[in-house]
Structure formats: C-alpha cells, structure tokens
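Quick illustration, no need to memorize.
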Amino acid sequence: MDLRIVSLFLTAFIIGVVGFLIYIRRLRDIINISFGLFVISVAVWSLGVAVFYLSPFTTAALFWSKFLYFAGGVIPSLFYYFALVFPTKKIPRILSKLLIFTPNILLFYIYFFTDFILKDIEVINGVKHFIYGPGHIIFDLHFDAFFLLAFINLAVSHYRESVVSTKNQLRFIIMGTLLGLILAGITNVVLPWFNDFRFIWLGPPLTIIWVFFIAYAIAKHHLLNVKVIATEVFTLAIMFLLFANIFAAQSARFRNIYITIFLAVSFLGYLIIKSVLREVRQREEIQRLAGSLEEANKRLVKLDKEKSEFLSIATHQLRTPMTVVKGYISMILEGAFGAFSDKAKEAIAKVYTSNERLIKLIDDLLNISRIERGKMDYDFQVLPLEKLVGDVILELKPVAERKGLKINWQEPVGLPKIKFDESKMRQVVLNLIDNAVKYTEKGEIDAKLEKINGKIRLTIKDTGAGLAKEKIPLLFKKYSRVETKSPYGKHTQGMGLGLYVAKRIIDDHKGKIWAESEGEGKGSAFFVELPAD
C-alpha cells in the first residue's frame, strides 16, 4: 500500500487515541470536551485526505476533495472554541457559538452543493490537482480569521494569567500551534496556491506535533507521572504495531485475525490505562486537598498576623487607662484623699487586686503579639538577679500575708551579676511567685537563688495544689490552663499565657525553665536557669 495513505491512516489513529486518552481523564470537563472535538476534526481531516488519495475515480475524488477541505475548514473554528474555554472553563456565549458554527454550516453547503470554492479534480503527471472556483479565497479567510481569533484569545489569557503552571500551559499551546500551522500551512495552504499539490498528504502528519503540544499542556501533571507515561507509551506502541500489521497482511484471513487481535488488545489497553488514570485521579484529589489545606493555612497565617496586630493596638490602648487607675487606687489606699473606713479600704484593695490582674493580662497579650510578630525587643544589661527577685517578693508579700502564707527568702551573697533584660525577667519572676501565691491556700513558699554547675538557678517551691506528672508538659503551652482535682487548684483567672510568655523570654535569654511536682495536692516547684557567664 502507498506509504502516504498508511501514514495518513496512522496519523488519524494516533491523533484519535491521544484525543481519547485526554478526553477520558475527565469526561465532563469542558476543556477535555472542546479538545476532543478539535482532535476529532483533525483525525477526520486526515482520514479525508487518505480516502482522497485512495479514490480512483474523478467523481469520488472530487467528493473527497470537498470533504477534506470542509474538514480542514472546521479545524480552526473548533480550535477557536477550545481557546475560548481554556484555561477558564467558561462556556462560550450564544453569540460566540453562532460565530463558530454558522460559517461551517454555510461552508458545508457551498462545498458540497456548489462549485464556488472547488470546481473539479484533474490528474497531472500522476498527481491529483484541485481546480478552484472563484470563491476559493473564502476558505483562506475563514481559516486565517479563526486562527487569528484563537491566537488573540490565548495571548490575552497568557498575559492575564498569574498562576505560573497555567501560564506555562498556555505557552505550550501557543508554541505547538505556531509550529504545527507553519509546517502544515506550507504544504496545504501556501503550496496549493502555486499549483503544487504533491505534499498535501504531509499536512495531517505534521499536525501531530500540534496535537501533542496541546495534549501535553492539558495533561501536563499527568504526563509527569512515570507510571502513566510508561503505561500509555507501552500500550500505544503495541497498538500501533498491531494496527500496522493489518495493512501488511498477505490475505484476508490474516487481516481478520490481526483486526481481532488489535481490537482485543485495544480494549485491554483501554482498561489498563483507565485503571492507572483512576489511581492518578485519586492522587490528584489528595494533592487538591493538600493544596486547599495549604491555601487555608495561608489564610490562617494572615488572620493570625492580623489578630496579633489587633492585640498589639488594643493592649496598648487598654494599658494606659489601667495604669492610671492603678495610680489613683494606690493614692487612695495611701490616704492621699483622706481617711476611709476599714470596710471601704478592703473594697478598694480588691479593686486594686483586680486591676493588677487586668494589667498582667494586658501585658501577657501585648507580649504574645510581640512574640508572634517577631518584635519582642530586649535591653540586656549586666545586673544582680537577686535584687530583682527580692523586689518582686517584697511587692507580693502583702498579698501572701493576707492569705496567711509565708514567703521564705534569704538574699544570697556572692552571686555573680548576669546579663538579662530587667523588665522581662521581672515579669517572669513575678509570674512564678504570683502563681505560687495564687495556687497555695496554706503553708509556705520557698524562693531560692543559687549558682549550680556554672549557672544561676532560681527555685520557687510551694505547698499548694501540685500537678499530675502528665499535665506538667502542658504548662508552658499557649492558652493552656491546667486544672486539678485538688480544692487548691480552682483558680482559673487568666488565659493561660503567663508561663508561655515566661518560657519564650527565658528561651531568648538562652536559659531553661521547667516544673516538677510529686502529684496533685503535694505542691510544686518551678525552676529557671540562666547562664552565669
């Protein structure tokens, strides 16, 4: 058989298989449907050219010449339809559909029922030549107009697209279309204008490049999967060989056998590829979900940042009036505004305590926002830590005494000065001793500062609520409040931020903070270690 005819049939088969493989990936996807229509038109055109070469009679050859021209004219309009839906998946409006399909209906009538575009066929030196009518230029105008519209649409989509992967897909389609059109256009549009019809059969095989570029662009993420590549290539290779054997058969009996084997292998190959694609789709779904989670995580990070900024602004605005309230309450308790009854003083003292808790909470929130924004500033200085601890104990001693608690503290002698941020470290020590007072109903609190193994260790030990060992790791987590069954552990004021902030501060000081307890109701001990050098 003529090599040209074999190549045209193989081209139709290859293009058809590629289109089918893309289409079955997502049967209801408008992109795959539009690509399928486009590929069918190219395959039908290739078959039309093959049958045109096979036709021995002038009448039949004329019919198939009109058919191949009509099929070739449908290709650009269907490609334009594909360009409209890729990558947005928006279904074209009624006007666009009319623009696409109406000219083809008119051309169908003009081709098959008139001689306006194509009059006749003649054979010159063994080569079939077309005899054009006066309206032959209509084909070229129709061909060029639709491809121009498709290119404009693809170029605009490429310009507007922000997603890199989609932008690359559009680039592949544009490159493949240009390459395919230039090659096939020379053989099937340009040369026929100069009455050279020898290479019309090359047009369809050259469009394989075009189809493959678009197929790759659509299914890029599939083709990068080694399993899919291996399965499709291996299956298609076997099918191509079996398909070629049909034409090489020496008798009708062998041809029928080859056709049967080809159909059976094609069906099995379809099932194999379908199963592999099912697996790929499942993987894609997982990737899609992972992408959704990643996008949600980005939004959460953004919201968290906005929350931190809001906390920073809100706490700054709240802290100022609370500090003013604290100052006036202190002046009232000191008698700056005259004498008060004991009952009034007791009530004002409670207001003062509550105000202190609010200030502490505001400070914690402010520190949280600074930590999350990475804007926790430190002013490190070489200072005696024992003075800071003594000052905090002196400040909290009245609160402890009102509860009948004793704070045992003996200021150490001879400890070296260490480098720390005074205000931040004061906040840590205040938090630890305040918690000891808060969670101890009776007994005493021991505060000790000593040098151990080249480090300065602060120990705050109480006889209060205590902790179960499994709950100790939760102490230093954000918004974590560890409650106990002990009647001493019912204090739930605060938001569970104090120890979290304390740990972050100690971490930034290159130190260590931890807690120990023998169990609920048996008291607890908190330790802070800081480098002495």
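Residues 221-226, 488-492 have pLDDT under 50 and may be disordered.
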